[in-house]
Amino acid sequence: MLIDQQAGTVTVEGEDWPVVADALPRRTFAIISHPDAGKTTLTEKLLHEGGAIREAGEVFSKGNRRRARSDWMAIEQQRGISVTSSVMTFEHQGIRFNLLDTPGHEDFSEDTYRTLTAVDCAVMVIDAAKGIEAQTLKLFEVCRLRSIPIITFINKIDREGRSPFELLDEIADKLALDTAPMSWPIGMGGMFRGLYSFEEDRAWLIDKVGGALCPTIIDGAGLDDERLLAAVSSQTHDGLLEDAALAAEACPAFDRTAFLSGDMTPVYFGSALRKYGIASLLSALARHAPPPQPQPALPEPVEPDASDVAGFVFKMQANMDPNHRDRVAFMRVCSGTLKRGMKLGNSRTGKTIGLHNPIFFLARDRELTEEARPGDIVGIPNHGTLRVGDTLSERSGLAFTGLPDFAPEILRRVRLDDPMKIKQMRKALLDLAEEGIARVFRPLEGSNWVVGVVGALQLEVISTRSEAEYGLAIGFEATAYETARWIDIADEPMRKRFIASQRANLAEDGDDALVFLARNGWELERVQKEWPEVSFSAVRERI
Ligand code: G4P
């Protein structure tokens, strides 16, 4: 890549691209769902609607070609799941959308949780036949913890599903959220005829013309509009009128303040596969989703309109080339205007890092941005200097807070086939721990390191990558431990007594934090009762 500052161009692969300074409003969001609810399909259709891809399937087929080059990514392909997160940026209706992809598989939920710390809004996709599923609930709880507003998209209305009322009730009951239906299906499943948008006063109807389904849009239509009456059977029309009256009575009207505080969700119906209701969803994101929000930090939250640059790393991704230990750190810009070549301080190490090759995600076709603003994500290539949770800023003494580490649910001892390679193995494990792929625990007694993961698939990633990137053949053996808790003891003499008494069950993690390894829930409870002044934590914030 060649940059000509004066001409304002960047040359990529021999072609000149104009550089744009864009100060468009931002909407930074993620899609949360249970696997199979339709997140991938919806992502594609949103990108298509937003003009970022010409044909649905384009981005993902390219991604597959790129991914096929790396060995460990083969796991993704074999399992048909998405392990890594990435960022997709597009502009629509004068707004720059940053869509952060999150892995749907539950083994990688930890990565998803961290990605959610970098968004201002989430779209919750629900399968109309299945309703709220386990993973949706878990992810919703993370959003609630951070008061992230949620827009609901009830997907697959082209198939037989539950009644809209039943689905709205379930959201209200299970998530304790007020629901405000913004659109309504005109018939469902086999009887599906279209959507009525209460918000836009628009009927969107589909009709079979010469075997193909063609949409007709009736703008400014009231529910009694003659054009609507003429287009659907009287039975379907009566059903819509009845449902609309009941919905208006049973559900509160949309209240943006309640939505922004996480107490209400606007609900849109549609079908990602058939691209029904996608335009309304995108307009909803433009209209209702919040602009970049202040981010929790010490000594005080960072306001997006502050002039100095500050951001935090929420994700690391290994370089696709297994021969290099390069990594890309994904950083959310929280304030200021970040430019290529800028120098930022890392609050954890106290060192300065020059952003010589930040990856700015593509804004528009044929144009590149050379700067990133609050709400944007930049990729920072590095050789291990950055970690998940790092704060990069022009301000000294600033540290973003709230990036969670979760207690592992699977603990394994690492078996090394060639004992001469123990040093390399330790380095590999610490590197992978820094990327946030696993926890590494060094017991205070004994020399066998233990790795902890949230999902079993992470173990596969560790062994595949150890082999591909470090030439290490490793396996995993059962340990006596079932779970781990981070320990916090304010009083130093008590800390010493606790360590002396529990030494056999204690370890240090990759950041040298003290961890209690428990054989089972019963043991954990017993020790907790014995040491009431000690805090045992299942979630740790990376500061
Ligand atoms: P995920 O990322 O949330 O796991 O879901 P994904 O988009 O992969 O969708 C899961 C399955 O649901 C896919 O079918 C997809 O085609 C289907 N699907 C998504 N949206 C809709 C919809 O609006 N209506 C209907 N009827 N189906 C939908 P699949 O058979 O598993 O995969 P494929 O062979 O179709 O790709």
From TrEMBL:
Q: Which UniProt keywords apply?
A: Cytoplasm, GTP-binding, Nucleotide-binding, Protein biosynthesis
- State which gene encodes it: prfC
* Superkingdom classification of source: Bacteria
Tagged with keyword GTP-binding: yes
Question: Does the keyword section mention Nucleotide-binding?
Answer: yes
Q: Where in the cell is it found?
A: Cytoplasm
**What is the official name of this protein in its record?**
Peptide chain release factor 3
For the ligand (GTP), the binding residues are S33, H34, P35, D36, A37, G38, K39, T40, D101, T102, P103, G104, H105
SUPFAM superfamilies noted in UniProt: EF-G C-terminal domain-like, P-loop containing nucleoside triphosphate hydrolases, Translation proteins
| PANTHER family xref list | PEPTIDE CHAIN RELEASE FACTOR RF3
Tell me which species this is from.
Alteraurantiacibacter palmitatis
Query: Function of this protein?
Result: Increases the formation of ribosomal termination complexes and stimulates activities of RF-1 and RF-2. It binds guanine nucleotides and has strong preference for UGA stop codons. It may interact directly with the ribosome. The stimulation of RF-1 and RF-2 is significantly reduced by GTP and GDP, but not by GMP.
Its family remark reads: Belongs to the TRAFAC class translation factor GTPase superfamily. Classic translation factor GTPase family. PrfC subfamily.
